[in-house]
């Protein structure tokens, strides 16, 4: 008889880790106990050497898919009193309350899928099968501690069979809070016109039949409604596009678990496949094969498609019963939160969906699909949503008091931070719409309530007109404004606390800078709490205020006019209108000085005739990148001059890009690739010249522009060649969804905020 | 020079000043109540509540397509009385003129002011002129105070607004803002763009005869969006506006789109926004449309109980919803 003590950290609370330990100990015939400590799980195990060794290994190797155990300590326990009392789950020690943890929503685990596919099982094809290792969490929790009574499953009384599983510590559904079966759990309901079809199989069959008829069906999932239609039918996709008034924005596609159809449509790398199969079941951008059989208008102008694998039992049924790829796009208007309520879905989607597949499990709060893109070999989040959020991270240093950071205006997220923890909310949407604003305030309340923390200060962007800033200013709490690009820079630094002195390229659309101009091509030196601008792009004046962000032709005009070149849009725009705008530009009427790299990409896209007016954010740069992809790596750069201005800033001049883009001797793909290569080299050039003057420990690339894989990867390669350690964001999006986290890091780094 | 331009002497109380008053102001503004020699005048008023309002006018340029600072100084003040439900009766006029200002221009502007006053049925009962040293004034500033009378017991104001009420606008918005902006920047001719500056008395008097009228306001600085926010703030209700229903003239829309302005935030000087009970909203609309200044009147929104925070919510033609904020001083682009 031997004894061992284990302390396990990482993500081990609220993920079924203790029941897993309990079952494992039973299997190996070990005695002992498991209990939650403060942020850790403590285990004492007694048995023979062989069993203990097997236990130690299985603790890590067989841990639940959604847990991330980290072995912190292993050793001999103190005095042991009961070594033959079996294995027990003990209550937490007084004063060592476990960390509050709000688990995200997870996929259907392999064990459940096996039952799901077994005609003899009582949950055969049951659309709401789940266990401790899978199923909804964040979207149905009403309060913590996480317990069935405090979820939207409270109204479903457990049948005797389910109750037995729920109460048996050896059952894999021991305290699976959303546990359900066809007898006692949620069910489907299909609505078309005035007709209602109840019964899981009948409702599902009706929905699938409708999808085969090129119709659009709104389907209630885990975190909200999706709009589904046949992804191979151009008729169906075109109809959905015209009804949703979404002419170009790429649509995500749901593929069946076996990947057969997906392999035919896309060329997956192991990284893509791993990301797609992960428990979070995100949307992953994957490269399309030429000659794929999907509808051409799924993602016009792009060579990548967002795809996902079934993330709930209902989606497994839809994907397999339909027998082909399905468009699965969030049921909302562009930028608004996804719809979650039956009545609201039916009224707001009346002109979009032909039929509705509802279910009667309430969605307590929405979670849109997460979106990842593999850049530099790793999946990087573009959007935090179902499965990934709330995103819980550790802070490099503890906070003196709890904080709430309210992020930006578009693609908003909020972050709650206290002690050494920070929690980033899921994607809440663009704060233009009243629905997004309601979700924003609700999420702020929810996070504080669920984690039992009240913010004592609120942190926002310096932009006075962001809805988040206005909200912050209206609170009775002390408010701190963080410069937009400082927050972007601190977001990356916060993920890599080991480095001291950063050189950070914060490239995005526009954000308000300390000099009152619209920054967006900035090079910042320092560390959180002490960023100093050391480089930038040649500034230009953007005509037409906010419209410049949606209309890339304005950036094209701005760049041309800035260097004294004439600008016309192939005569497509009335001369009088152009003259009017030019006049306004000369009079500085509603024009803003900017150095935004995003607008330089916009300008290039417009000058190449790719996108004149964007119908979705980032359309110009995305088309430019897709066009460049074929030529990438084979193209010569044009040298962008680098010189110090009167303030000592190193300014990269984009001007040589204009004659390049106008060169009739070069093909558009070549020009697009050259723009990328030239800007990647401009980053390197700045880094090299600044390294001569400062100690640089690491380089960061952050801001929405670095969602551009081609630019990011070229810059990383060039920087690595010169010996720089260069980083992109990893868990936190590099776009404005990462601002809330960056605001926390930036604020926390100022001395007065440490205890 | 002294014959054709204002000099400091025109403000020193002496002969030049007397001549300016007699030959310019009195010539245009003469009426039985304007006694240029008296220190103060008595003004007889009809029965009712007496309302008073005051406003200053600094518009640049002084003359613009569709109006000038003189007419504006009448309309601005008359309209404030009119939307409060009053019949405007008297104005006072303060003139601040810069040394070197062309007398012929002043004459034109005062003539225009007199014409506007006559049309609105108000008399200028008292006035004063000051001359500012060269470089210390924008050419010409005007200030007017208006006195009017409202029928006793008339319930009108933001406090009367109820959930379910409808919101009307008397005509296209943004004309004045665009016309003045283009004139100021000297962008050359855009002939179709004229200020809407006018007296709104016909519009307000018509509505005063209709039961269920709750509130009226003229959307001047900050435009329709600002009035909408005032209604929401005072009532605690949501105001849903239908963008497709809000009249905006095509050339105004085109200029706004090109230059990146939102016409809903641009000033009007001859429009009325009214809140009317749902039962009589259509009647009010029909009555406005009978008037020459109301042919393009429209029902543009309604007030509803707010579930959360009360807001102005613009329903876009694409089916989306956007919160219309109070105007920021110098709005910066928010797109990152
Ligand atoms: Fe940004
Ligand atoms: Mg006024
Ligand atoms: Zn499971
Ligand atoms: Zn059951």
From TrEMBL, chain A:
Any Pfam family: HypF_C
Metal-binding listed as a keyword: yes
InterPro entries per record: Acylphosphatase-like_dom (IPR001792), Acylphosphatase-like_dom_sf (IPR036046), Acylphosphatase_CS (IPR017968), Carbamoyltrans_HypF-like (IPR051060), Carbamoyltransferase_HypF (IPR004421), DHBP_synth_RibB-like_a/b_dom (IPR017945), HypF_C (IPR041440), HypF_C_2 (IPR055128)
This enzyme's EC code(s): 6.2.-.-
Any GO molecular function: zinc ion binding
GO BP term, example: protein maturation
Catalytic activity: C-terminal L-cysteinyl-[HypE protein] + carbamoyl phosphate + ATP + H2O = C-terminal S-carboxamide-L-cysteinyl-[HypE protein] + AMP + phosphate + diphosphate + H(+); an acyl phosphate + H2O = a carboxylate + phosphate + H(+)
Domain Acylphosphatase-like as annotated: residue spans: 3-91
Highest rank taxon of the organism: Bacteria
Active-site feature positions: 18, 36
Domain YrdC-like positions: 201-387
Annotated metabolic or biological route of this protein: Protein modification; [NiFe] hydrogenase maturation
Signal peptide start-end: none
Keywords, alphabetical: Hydrolase, Ligase, Metal-binding, Transferase, Zinc, Zinc-finger
Alphabetized PANTHER family for the sequence: CARBAMOYLTRANSFERASE, CARBAMOYLTRANSFERASE HYPF
Function (record text): Involved in the maturation of [NiFe] hydrogenases. Along with HypE, it catalyzes the synthesis of the CN ligands of the active site iron of [NiFe]-hydrogenases. HypF functions as a carbamoyl transferase using carbamoylphosphate as a substrate and transferring the carboxamido moiety in an ATP-dependent reaction to the thiolate of the C-terminal cysteine of HypE yielding a protein-S-carboxamide.
Protein family according to the UniProt entry: Belongs to the carbamoyltransferase HypF family.
Name listed for the protein in its UniProt record: Carbamoyltransferase HypF
Organism: Acidihalobacter yilgarnensis
Automatic annotation (TrEMBL), chain B:
UniProt GO BP: protein maturation
Record-annotated PurM-like N-terminal domain positions: 39-149
Highest taxon listed in the record's lineage: Bacteria
Pfam families assigned: AIRS, AIRS_C
SUPFAM superfamilies per record: PurM C-terminal domain-like, PurM N-terminal domain-like
CDD domains noted in UniProt: HypE (cd02197)
Domain PurM-like C-terminal: 162-307
Family membership: Belongs to the HypE family.
Official protein name in the record: Hydrogenase expression/formation protein HypE
């Amino acid at each position: 008889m031997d004894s061992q003590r284990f302390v396990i950290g990482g993500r081990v609370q609220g993920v079924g880790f203790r029941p897993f330990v309990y079952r494992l100990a039973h299997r190996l015939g070990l005695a002992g106990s498991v209990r939650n400590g403060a942020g850790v799980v403590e285990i004492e195990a007694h048995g023979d050497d062989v069993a203990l060794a097997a236990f130690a290994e299985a603790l890590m190797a067989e841990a639940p898919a959604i847990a991330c155990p980290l072995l912190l300590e292993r050793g001999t326990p103190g005095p042991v009193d009961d070594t033959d009392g079996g294995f027990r789950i003990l209550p937490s020690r007084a004063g060592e309350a476990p960390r509050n943890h709000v688990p995200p929503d997870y996929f259907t685990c392999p064990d459940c899928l096996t039952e799901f596919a077994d005609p003899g099982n009582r949950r055969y094809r049951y659309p709401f099968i789940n266990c401790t290792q899978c199923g909804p969490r964040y979207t149905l929790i009403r309060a913590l501690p996480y317990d069935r009574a405090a979820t939207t499953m409270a109204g479903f009384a457990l049948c005797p069979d389910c109750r037995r599983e729920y109460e048996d510590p050896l059952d894999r559904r021991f305290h699976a809070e959303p546990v359900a079966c066809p007898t006692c759990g949620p069910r489907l309901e299909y609505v078309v016109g005035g007709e209602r079809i109840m019964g899981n199989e009948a409702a599902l069959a009706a929905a699938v039949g409708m999808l085969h008829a090129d119709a659009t069906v709104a389907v209630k999932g885990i975190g909200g409604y999706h709009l589904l239609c046949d992804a191979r039918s151009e008729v169906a996709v075109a109809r959905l596009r015209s009804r949703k008034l979404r002419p170009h924005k790429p649509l995500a596609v749901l593929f069946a678990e076996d990947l057969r159809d997906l392999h035919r449509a896309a060329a997956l790398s192991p990284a893509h496949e791993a990301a797609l199969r992960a428990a979070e079941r995100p949307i992953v951008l994957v490269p399309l094969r030429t000659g794929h059989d999907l509808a051409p208008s799924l993602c016009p102008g792009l060579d990548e498609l967002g795809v996902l694998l079934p993330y709930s039992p209902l989606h497994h049924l839809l994907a397999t019963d339909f027998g082909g790829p399905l468009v699965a796009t969030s049921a909302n208007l562009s930028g608004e939160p996804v719809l979650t309520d039956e009545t609201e879905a039916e009224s707001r989607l009346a002109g979009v969906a032909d039929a509705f597949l509802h279910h009667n499990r309430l969605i307590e709060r929405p979670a849109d699909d997460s979106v990842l893109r593999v850049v530099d070999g790793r999946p990087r989040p573009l959007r935090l949503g179902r499965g990934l959020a709330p995103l819980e991270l550790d802070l490099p240093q503890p906070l003196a008091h709890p904080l709430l950071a309210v992020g930006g205006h578009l693609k908003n997220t909020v972050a709650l931070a206290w002690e050494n923890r920070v929690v980033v909310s899921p994607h809440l949407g663009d704060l233009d719409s009243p629905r997004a604003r309601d979700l924003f305030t609700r999420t702020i309340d929810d996070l504080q309530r669920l984690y039992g923390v009240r913010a004592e200060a609120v942190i926002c962007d310096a932009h006075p007109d962001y809805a988040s800033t206005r909200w912050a200013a209206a609170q009775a709490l002390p408010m701190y404004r963080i410069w937009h690009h400082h927050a972007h820079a601190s977001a990356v630094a916060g993920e890599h606390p080991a480095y001291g002195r950063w050189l950070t390229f914060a490239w995005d659309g526009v954000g308000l800078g300390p000099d009152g101009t619209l920054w967006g091509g900035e090079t910042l030196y320092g560390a959180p709490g002490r960023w100093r601008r050391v480089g930038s792009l040649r500034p230009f004046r953007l005509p037409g205020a906010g419209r410049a962000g949606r209309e890339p032709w304005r950036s094209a005009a701005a760049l041309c006019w800035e260097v004294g070149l004439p600008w016309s849009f192939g005569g497509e725009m009335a001369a009088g209108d152009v003259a009017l705008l030019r006049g306004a530009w000369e009079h500085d009427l509603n024009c803003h000085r900017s150095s935004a790299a995003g607008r330089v990409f916009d300008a290039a896209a417009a000058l190449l005739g790719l996108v004149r007016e964007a119908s979705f954010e980032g359309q110009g740069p995305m088309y430019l990148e897709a066009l460049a992809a074929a030529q990438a790596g084979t193209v010569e750069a044009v040298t962008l001059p680098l010189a110090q201005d009167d303030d000592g800033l190193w300014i990269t001049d984009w001007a040589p890009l204009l004659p390049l883009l106008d060169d009739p001797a070069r093909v558009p793909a070549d020009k697009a690739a050259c723009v990328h290569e030239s800007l990647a080299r401009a980053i390197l050039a700045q880094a090299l010249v600044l390294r001569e003057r400062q100690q640089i420990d690491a380089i960061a690339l952050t801001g929405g522009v670095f969602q551009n894989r081609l630019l990011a990867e070229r810059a990383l390669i060039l920087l690595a060649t010169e010996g720089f350690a260069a980083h992109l964001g990893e868990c936190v999006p590099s776009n404005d969804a990462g601002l809330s986290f960056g605001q926390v890091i930036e604020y926390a780094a100022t001395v007065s905020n440490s205890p | 020079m002294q014959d054709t331009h204002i000099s400091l002497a025109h403000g020193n109380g002496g002969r030049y000043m007397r001549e300016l008053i007699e030959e310019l102001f009195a010539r245009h503004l003469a009426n039985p109540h304007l006694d240029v020699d008296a220190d103060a005048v008595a003004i007889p008023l009809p029965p009712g509540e007496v309302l008073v309002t005051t406003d200053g006018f600094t518009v640049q340029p002084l003359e613009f397509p569709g109006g000038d600072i003189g007419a504006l100084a009448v309309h601005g003040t008359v309209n404030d009385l009119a939307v409060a439900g009053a019949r405007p009766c008297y104005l006072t006029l303060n003139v601040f003129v810069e040394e070197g200002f062309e007398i012929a221009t002043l004459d034109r502007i005062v003539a225009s002011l007199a014409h506007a006053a006559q049309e609105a049925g108000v008399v200028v009962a008292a006035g004063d002129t000051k001359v500012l040293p060269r470089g210390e004034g924008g050419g010409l500033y005007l200030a007017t105070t208006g006195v009017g009378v409202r029928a006793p017991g008339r319930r009108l104001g933001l406090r009367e607004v109820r959930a379910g009420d409808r919101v009307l606008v008397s005509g296209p918005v943004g004309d004045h803002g665009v016309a003045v902006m283009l004139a100021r920047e000297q962008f050359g001719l855009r002939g179709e763009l004229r200020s809407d500056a006018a007296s709104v008395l016909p519009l307000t008097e018509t509505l005063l005869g209709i039961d269920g009228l709750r509130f009226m306001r003229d959307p001047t600085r900050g435009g329709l969006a600002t009035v909408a926010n005032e209604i929401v703030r005072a009532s605690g209700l949501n105001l849903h506006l239908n963008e497709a229903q809000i009249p905006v003239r095509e050339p105004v829309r085109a200029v706004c789109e090109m230059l990146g302005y939102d016409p809903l935030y641009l000033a009007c000087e001859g429009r009325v926004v009214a809140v009317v009970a749902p039962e009589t909203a259509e009647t009010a609309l029909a009555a406005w449309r009978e008037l020459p200044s109301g042919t393009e009147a429209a029902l543009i929104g309604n007030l509803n109980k707010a579930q959360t925070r009360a807001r102005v919510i613009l329903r876009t033609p694409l089916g989306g919803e956007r919160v219309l904020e109070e105007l920021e001083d110098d709005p910066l682009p928010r797109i990152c």
